[in-house]
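Student: I would love a firmer grasp of how sequence relates to backbone shape in proteins. I am handing you a single protein, as its sequence and its fold in token form. I am told such tokens are a discrete way to write the fold. I hope you can help me see how the letters and the tokens relate. Take your time, and here it is.
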Amino acid sequence: MLTRRSTLALVSAATVAPTSVMARTPTEVMWDDLIPFGVPYSEIVGDGEIDFENDTWKPEYDANATKFNTTLEGAYVRMPGYIIPFVGDADGITEFLLVPYVGACIHVPPPPPNQLVYVRSNQPWPTSGLWEAIWVTGTMSLELQDTTLATIGYALESDSIEVYE
């Protein structure tokens, strides 16, 4: 039987419990959500040209390509995509580029920076699953960075990765 004193103690403990103990529900984010409200997708995709000497594509984007949805800074999100591996070992891939479609940045010109997410994960993803669509859950940040493949606009510290179903 709960007494008034034990009920008050239980309520007090719950209000001071660290948020890491409480389960967080991620906000589902789709690729359109990475673009600021009011900027149409057609205005972020640009032309470009092939650099035959280096066998790469040099994309040209307008200023909208580096406009970001600032409400996602620090947000706990869950978003789908495909993996372009950056860092891994025999256990799997731990750092990768999350892209909106298969082959982005490899077989076709890279999407604009506000359509790319650099993921760091403590949970290695098996290299046998590189062509699968996945869900990534974690904390999003705005982090403009240049890599050999593309300029990336977002970063995500991943808590979990799962097959997209």
